[in-house]
Amino acid sequence: MNDPIRSPRLSTDKDFDGESFAPIHTTTVTVSGGPASHGRATGRARSADGALDLDLRMPAELGGDGQGTNPEQLFAAGFAACYHGALSLVARQAALDPSVISVETTVAFGRDPEDGGYLLRVDLVVKWPDIDPAVAAPLMETADSLCPYVKMTGQGTPTHITLDC
Question: Alpha-carbon distance 151 to 51, whole Å?
């Protein structure tokens, strides 16, 4: 018999008062360069536990063949999953059903006008049918404060989060 998958037992309480970062989970992914000796163009990404094992390919817009996963897709997936988890947690705490929530994340890779280098821009669209925006807004603000991806990007990567009702 299969046990149902349960939501993680994480908290929104601000109950940590340690003096330094306290890891709860750590993961390692190794990227090798492949035939072009360029991880982004022909690389392979493999997690230490083997759960992630895939070829990386440059998107067509950057001169690649577009026939594989690229880093922006992986970042978008991680960001969307993390933000969805945070929003789901606060929705449940507000006695709302999070099963209808989805998060669409767009990651754009482009040139940075400040230094001529490269920059990522992140846009999140929360799709939450039939929710009153006045109810969703404070929950999304709380999710922003909980989601480590939002915290990370807030330190340099422009992030725009919108609600699509």
Answer: 26
3-class secondary structure, 127:
strand
- Cβ distance 143 to 86 under 8 Å? yes
- DSSP helix/strand/coil, 156: coil
Q: By three-state DSSP, how is residue 165 classified?
A: coil
Give pLDDT tens digits along the chain (165 positions).
566 777 766 766 766 777 777 777 888 899 999 888 999 899 999 999 999 999 999 999 888 888 889 999 999 999 999 999 999 999 999 999 999 999 999 999 999 999 999 988 999 999 999 999 999 999 999 999 999 999 888 765 555 778 887
Q: Report pTM.
A: 0.83
CA–CA dist 14, 19 (Å, integer): 14
Tell me if residue 63 falls in helix, strand or coil. coil
